[in-house]
Amino acid sequence: MEVKEFYYNLPEELIAQTPINNRDESRLMVLNKKSQTIEHKIFKDILDYLQPGDCLVRNNTKVIPARLYGKKDTGANIEFLLLNRIEGDFWEVMVRPGRKLRIGTKVTFGDGLLEAEILEILNGGNRKVKFSYNGIFNEILDKIGLMPLPPYIKEKLKDKNRYQTVYAKYEGSAAAPTAGLHFTEELLRKIQEKGVDIANVTLHVGIGTFRPVKVEKVEDHAMHSEHFYIKQEDVNKINMAKQNGKRIIAVGTTSCRVLESIADKDTGFVKPCEGDTQIFIYPGYKFKCIDALITNFHLPESTLIMLVSAFAGKDYIMNAYNEAVKEKYRFFSFGDAMFIE
Description:
It is a single chain. The chain is an alpha/beta fold. It has 2 domains: 3-63 and 159-340, QueA-like; 67-144, QueA-like (Thrombin, subunit H, Beta Barrel). 18% of the residues lie in helices and 28% in strands. The chain is built from 6 helices and 17 strands. It has helices at 137-144, 185-193, 232-243, 252-262, 303-312, 314-326, and strands at residues 27-32, 37-42, 55-59, 61-63, 67-72, 77-87, 90-96, 106-109, 114-121, 127-133, 170-173, 197-203, 226-230, 248-251, 273-277, 292-296, 337-340. Strands 2-1-17-16-14-3-12-13-15 form a 9-stranded mixed β-sheet. A 6-stranded antiparallel β-barrel has the order 5-6-7-10-9-8.
């Protein structure tokens, strides 16, 4: 299968640069796989499509303000993007410009609140660094770090919390699980009042989620790895819904990837566990656990549009994307959503 089969033409003005005022008033495109129809709704209408006994599975990771601007002792400007806490104060970071950061180089951030020393150059050019500071690392990060917005967002984010779901809990992501950005506390309360169970998984989203697919053949792409865990109480909710013949609805591709990574191939049941997933879902994949998916609109030729195509059928999805362009939906992280059932 060729990567170019997942291309669609997107006018730049449809890439959402800022979040809309009310989270749950984004537009919602509803796709029904059986009838192959397309409906145009508002996100809060998702309530009409959820049934008592369904289990909504969301990713409760929290984005850290992972972008840091600092200086070398020579005065040169340096940018860090925190990717992964290796342990304690040791991190894997993406750096710019890389050529200036040899082993032993020190970089200072926030007028000396934070200092980093380059310990190792990793595969792909990332660096292993050790941070030094006085106080609590996360509090310093909150003070001097910026939200790591994707490269296609050029506008400055006025409110840090808008690149965070209302249920974000466990810090560790370098990008938001964006399908969850549409939910409000009130909408989640109404969903529960309707008899829908809500379960959590935690997958820390890596910056690899934005990495372009550079091969011609889909099957040749090497998928990035992301860390996840799921607790017993959440496993119980998912398995109960499965047992009762109800639907598992994944909020976003990250929740979907966790569930499909851990589900039993025969029953679709899941177990509590922690690990790393490199699962790459593209057309031909047989889904084991999820029955419906809430997701944003993804980049052309990305692994995420391939995942959605695997779930709903490539031609149907590509038609829906072309319709979304025609109807001037807002695309990507701060954009509109799609519900596929």
